[in-house]
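New to this. Explain the following:
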Amino acid sequence: MLVSACLLGQPVRYDGQSKGIISDWLASLGAEGRVLAFCPEVAGGLPTPRPPAERQGEQVRTGNGLDVTAEFDRGAELALALCLREGIRFALLKEGSPSCGSGRIYNGHFEGVSVPGEGKTTALLRRHGILVFSEEQLAALALALV
């Protein structure tokens, strides 16, 4: 299973933080070697920390207008390549992220308002049949893995 690196305690979020290991269940899967940590934004070439970014249609921009779409697209493509190479069929990705959001993302106006939508990586993985869940859907993911 592919897992957002920030959900596994790696400090790769835009603000240089992690979300901590979000559950004992996830930690045990990691200990069994059943998860691969991945941050599409870092893999795509963005530094940590980095300015916050939000989707604006098909583009991704920082609050000061810098277009980082190419880095987000590259990260999504690398995530897909990893999933295809390793036979990964499930992903647990960080909700709200312009890369990883699976049900909602921020509205692109840097107002702290979320709207229905998905991040670049989630969209690409789903188009290739990979089931994507957020950290808010751990129970559903656990059932899907059975």
